[in-house]
Amino acid sequence: MIASMTTVSFDVPGNDATRRSRVYGGEILVHRPSAISVELCGFARALLDEAFAPLEPRMAQHSLSVQQYASVLADLKPRFIHHPESKRLIRQLLGELGCDPDETYFDVPRLRSSTSDGYLTTGIAYAFHPHRDTWYSAPMCQINWWMPVYEIEANNAMAFHPRYWTTGVPNSSATYDYQRWNATSRFNAAQHVGTDSREQPKALIPIEAEPDLRVLPPVGGLLMFSAAQLHSSVPNTSGRTRFSVDFRTINLTDARALQGAPNRDSYCSGTAMPDYLRMSDLSHVPADVQARYMPGHPQAPELSAAPSAPVVGKLAVSQRP
Fold first, then answer.
1. For position 150, which CATH number holds?
2. Distance, CA of 271 to CA of 181 (rounded, Å)
3. Each residue of 237-292: pLDDT tens digit?
4. What is the SS3 string spanning the chain?
5. Predicted pLDDT of residue 318
6. What pLDDT shows up at residue 56?
7. Which domain, by its residues, includes 104?
8. Is residue 161 part of a domain?
9. Position 207 in a domain
10. Less packed terminus of the chain by CB within 10 Å, N or C?
């Protein structure tokens, strides 16, 4: 029997505070594509087309060596992350969704790639094992936003592992410090081709990967979920590279009040708080809030019952406009 049930809701009515509360409770929200989200995907596609020309970006892995491919991504991804247009579109998108510009802080968007059939799964195209972002020093109030740049299917999507929402997982996050990672490992990802020696938080027990939950929004459709959700990269067997955009937000009032998802099992130190920028003026999170989170999560990890027996199967949820 599954220990808990995860609800997937589409186009949830109400304000941002209501949405945040539902996400902190374990719900996954799906927003239909908007003009702004489709524009953001179009901007990502334009950069992809330019970077891989004359190749079609999703099929380029079949024509380039792994080293050539990693070199293209090493130039492309920072250009997308730091491009003024990326920040402009994220701010417009959050405004369209009713986020308070003075209370909402976001980090710069990432362009992710998941190549097919194990072509490149390390370094700059890292295939994420089952993890919570809170193992990587994301605060418990962080909300993750994710959208596909091209159409996706169940065999090149992202997977959630909902049975672990209420269940702690023994893991190595106690050895992870975000500020140390930034200083030593974050900016050399492109050097790790074939193998990846960077130490990252991982589960110390086998994760029962099934049943999993794969939500398949259309291009520009937006997933909204807690940083505490256990999720992973699906092994891509589609024959095409999956490209997606993701970014994260926090609400300052929630951060100060220690509101957010429960801390089941995150023991890391350091914090992602210095990364976020305020919607209204791009200022950083106030110093006193950063200092409160710098030693590690202010919320102590909870004790949790041992996992129950595995269940076989998986669930895919599809949405089309």
1. 2.60.120
2. 11
3. 999 999 999 999 999 999 999 999 999 999 999 999 999 999 999 999 999 999 99
4. CCCCCCCEEECCCCCHHHHHHHHHCCCEEEECCCHHHHHHHHHHHHHHHHHHCCCCHHHHHHCCCHHHHHHHHHHHHHHHHHCHHHHHHHHHHHHHCCCCCCCEEECCCEEEEECCCCCCCCHHHCCCCCECHHHHCCCCCCEEEEEECCCCCHHHCEEECHHHCCCCCCECHHHCEHHHHHHHCHHHHHHCCCCCCCCCCCECCCCCCCCCEEEECCCCCEEEEECCCCEEECCCCCCCCEEEEEEEEEEHHHHHHCCCCCCCCCCCECCCHHHCEECCCCCECCHHHHHHHCCCCCCCCCCCCCCCCCCCCCEEEECCC
5. 42
6. 98
7. 8-305
8. yes
9. yes
10. N
Q: How many domains does the chain have?
A: 1
Buried b (16+ CB within 10 A) or exposed e, 310-319: eeeeeeeeeb
Q: What percent of the chain has pLDDT over 70?
A: 86
Assigned token pair, 125: 């195209």
pLDDT for the residue 127: 54
150-159 tens-digit pLDDT: 999 999 999 9
Q: Which residue has the tokens 């957010």?
A: 260
Does the residue 317 lie in any domain? no
The pLDDT of 216-233, averaged and rounded, is 97
In a domain, 313, yes or no: no
